[in-house]
Design a protein that fits this description.
The chain has about 400 residues and is an alpha/beta fold. Helix content is about 50%, strand content about 15%.
């Protein structure tokens, strides 16, 4: 998302500043002062050892800082998330390239397709995949250019292409209708699918769950939206194009920021008060190892995207979940999506930000599970187990 891109860039520059300060202090200590002794010989005197120690401390921060930063800004884990994968398969993308797909859960379980947010990959569904796979056939996939998916030499990055890819993933379910779940750009992809391929929702889609997403250019539904819309052309777009042109430098900078822990501080802005250490580490690792140029192209594509009204004629049930303190896609965006869809209901989760599906995974997963059961009752009747109550969430129609 554009705001997180800008924050990562700012903290990346700060990380370079820390490294530069370390180098300067060590160099200035080494240079010392030239002092002429009584014998007429000039000697280099290094008596400001604080420069050496300060420089070494900053150097250590530059490459080991994440081990200090993460425990300071996130809570201990009661259940760790990890970038684990299961055996995958390749699906040819209609737009060129290859899509990496992983399937978990009982072979006869009702299908659920999970589409992740931008800059991440399908491993971010660690909690949801493990929990939902007890009863459902869970399909996760990497968006083109991210994770293990390849966009192809001529494959472009835009929401219509992602929607076409999602339609191809839907074919994996055969004749069994699926529940589509999307976080952030994943939710935008599902809305694009409804706009571009509405007929699929008649027989291939049983329900839709949209998590912390928007219906239009994210610059319009984020905090300080007017400011960022004004900065779009003079600042944001040039920075994104510069990232594409200078990808090797951008990638090196991203990894250096990751090691220093400053990338974790940038990503911390996407979480609320419940974030744990493994959740912050998992998110930051994925945002670092995915190609900066691909991420920049995706952000540029979002600036040109709009699906206002895409759900207005949709008769498919829709669950919209928004975070109370989401600054990336504000709760008002979730309310507008729920208002526009005839069969929608809105659920707000207290105290969570854009990555709410991680920091309150139990609430989000329980809501998705309950929703999927309600729209696929005959499919899960034989696998019914007690579902935990969704505490701390508010629901409205």
């Amino acid at each position: 998302m554009p705001l997180l891109f800008l924050l990562r860039l700012i903290f990346s520059l700060l990380s370079w500043a820390v490294l530069a300060a370390a180098g300067y202090l060590i160099w200035s200590w080494w240079q010392g002062d030239l002092v002429v002794a009584p014998d007429g010989l000039a000697r280099r005197v290094r008596d400001e050892d604080w420069r050496l120690w300060a420089g070494l401390a900053l150097l250590a921060w530059s490459f080991l800082g994440k081990w200090l930063v993460v425990p300071l800004v996130a809570k201990p884990d009661t259940r760790r998330t990890r970038p684990d994968r299961v055996a995958g398969q390749i699906v040819k993308s209609p737009g060129g390239g290859e899509l990496h797909v992983e399937v978990s859960g009982p072979i006869d379980g009702p299908p659920i397709i999970l589409t992740h947010g931008w800059g991440l990959d399908s491993t971010i569904w660690f909690y949801a995949r493990h929990d939902l796979a007890r009863r459902f056939r869970v399909i996760t996939w990497d968006l083109a250019g991210l994770g293990k998916s390849r966009r192809g030499s001529s494959g472009k990055i835009d929401l219509s292409r992602f929607a076409d890819d999602l339609a191809a993933i839907l074919d994996l379910t055969g004749q069994r209708p699926a529940v589509l779940v999307g976080h952030s750009i994943g939710g935008m992809t599902i809305q694009t699918l409804a706009r571009d391929h509405p007929r699929l929702f008649a027989d291939k889609v049983r329900g839709v769950a949209l998590l912390n997403t928007t219906y239009t250019n994210p610059l319009r539904t984020m905090v300080f939206s007017r400011l960022f819309q004004a900065l779009r052309r003079p600042l944001l777009e040039p920075l994104l194009h510069l990232t594409i042109w200078l990808q090797p430098v951008a990638w090196l900078s991203a990894w250096q920021s990751y090691l220093s822990g400053l990338a974790h501080l940038a990503n911390r802005f996407g979480f609320g008060r419940f974030v744990t250490r493994s959740q912050l580490e998992h998110t930051t690792l994925l945002a670092t190892r995915n190609a900066p140029a691909v991420q920049a192209r995706g952000n540029l594509a979002m600036f040109r995207w709009d699906a206002t009204g895409a759900l207005e004629g949709l008769q498919t049930p829709v669950l919209v979940i928004g975070g109370e303190v989401d600054i990336i896609t504000k709760l008002e965006a979730s309310r507008e999506i729920a208002r526009s869809a005839p069969e929608a209901r809105l659920q707000m989760v207290d105290g969570v930000n854009h990555m709410g599906f991680l920091e309150r995974a139990n609430l989000y997963t329980a809501a998705i599970e309950s929703f999927a059961e309600s729209v696929q009752p005959e499919s899960v009747a034989s696998q019914r187990i007690e579902t935990p109550a969704v505490l701390g969430a508010h629901e409205s129609s």
